[in-house]
């Protein structure tokens, strides 16, 4: 009973809103957003930190409560159709070619480095119609969803062109 009261007292004294980010971390957040603007142009959506990558894709920058960058994702625009109904028309966004994917990874590296690769995923995990790959870097994990196509999962060793549906870089944060 005493433990429960202590627990309730602790949380009743805690602020109901998140603490403001320290100045250095807030400056880091602003630096990342400026770098995103430098690479992709002005934000399409400042509230959600969305930047235009192409007609069908956006870059999303996410931060934790302290203002540290937690992820950069290249995602289909239609995922944000609730806030942007005009993007619902981009439902069939298609895929990114390997060349486009590698170029986008280079551009994201200029915003925030992943560090050196520590472990490349040997296999993708198929979940029709995609296959997900997780590569580990010194400061991040790169999660890539590839367009597997049902015929590629049924017929082993079938030659195909690798295409990317979307990808997200999850950054390690220090507390």
What does this protein look like?
This protein is of the alpha+beta class. The protein has one domain (22-171). The protein contains four helices and ten strands; from the N terminus they run ααβββββαββββαβ. The chain has helices at residues 2-13, 23-40, 98-111, 150-154, and strands at residues 43-45, 50-52, 57-63, 69-76, 96-97, 117-119, 125-127, 130-137, 140-147, 163-171. Strands 1, 2, 3, 4, 5, 6, 7, 8, 9 and 10 form a ten-stranded antiparallel beta sheet that branches. β7 (125-127) and β8 form a beta hairpin. α2 packs antiparallel against α3. The model is unreliable at 1-22 (pLDDT under 50).
Unreliable stretches = 1-22
Strand content: 25-35%
- What is the chain-wise order of helices and strands? HHEEEEEHEEEEHE
Total E-strand runs? 10
Radius of gyration, rounded? 20 Å
Helix content: 25-40%
Instruction: Kindly give the count of domains.
Output: 1
Major pleated sheet: 10 strands, antiparallel
Distance between the termini: 32 Å
Q: What structural category characterises the helix and strand content?
A: alpha+beta
How many DSSP H or I helices?
Answer: 4
Mean pLDDT equals: 79
The global form is: globular
């Amino acid at each position: 009973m005493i433990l429960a009261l202590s627990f309730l007292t602790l949380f009743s004294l805690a602020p109901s809103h998140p603490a403001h980010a320290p100045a250095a971390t807030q400056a880091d957040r602003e630096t990342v957003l400026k770098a995103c603007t430098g690479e992709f142009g002005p934000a399409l959506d400042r509230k959600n930190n969305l930047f235009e990558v192409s007609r069908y894709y956006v870059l999303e920058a996410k931060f934790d409560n302290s203002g540290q960058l937690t992820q950069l994702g290249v995602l289909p625009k239609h995922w944000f159709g609730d806030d942007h109904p005009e993007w619902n028309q981009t439902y069939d966004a298609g895929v990114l070619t390997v060349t486009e994917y590698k170029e986008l990874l280079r551009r994201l590296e200029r915003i925030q480095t992943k560090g050196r690769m520590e472990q490349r995923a040997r296999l993708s995990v198929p979940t029709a119609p995609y296959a997900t790959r997780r590569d580990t870097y010194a400061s991040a994990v790169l999660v890539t969803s590839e367009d597997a196509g049902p015929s590629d999962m049924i017929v082993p060793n079938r030659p195909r062109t690798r295409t990317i549906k979307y990808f997200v870089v999850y950054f390690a944060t220090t507390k």
